[in-house]
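Posting for a labmate who doesn't have an account.
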Amino acid sequence: MAPQTGPSPLLIACALGIEHLALRTGDRGGAGGPVTVLRTGMGPKAAERSVARVLADPALGAAAVLATGFCAGLAPGMHPGDLVVAEETRDPRSTVACVATERLVKELARAVPGRTVHTGPLTGSDHVVRGPERADLLATGAIAVDMESAATLLSAVRTGARPVAAVRVVVDAPEHELVRIGTVRGGISAFRVLRSVLPAFFEWHRSLLLPRR
């Protein structure tokens, strides 16, 4: 991707009100360009519609897009508050490759020291995944699942070539399953982590503007 000369916009998309609250109350300093935090609503259809609508604005036409929020971990040993950096997002329609994931891993380790960062495929679902279905998804090679990331990134790249990424915070896992993925009490650790990740997102975004060697 060619270097950009002006401030580059960044669109950060999440689904839930609690995710949006975490991002709005996090550290917003250090952004390399205009930042829009979009609450899409829950589910892949809502995410796809919302992202397409926002990216139709010429001011965001060249925006980098990062999907974030909570997810369900699929692998044994995952814990609430762990981070997932997607190498790619998957759903039945497509696979979308993520950009500069190594930089995200590095910056997240700096922003949230001591938290485990997992990397691998992030799969999409149209419902909250529980119980034995986790094992079925893990068998496909995915390490985590959520309802919006795949739809968000697919919608983003359909509107034009742009850098995309997905970073999710594990809110439940095989040994730590919640009754409902939006439960505040059970997900308090994940909420605190999500509040802390914006500096890493901004550094990832800034790195996209550097000339490639």
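Reply:
Got it, the structure tokens are right above this. Residues 44-55 form the longest helix (12 residues).
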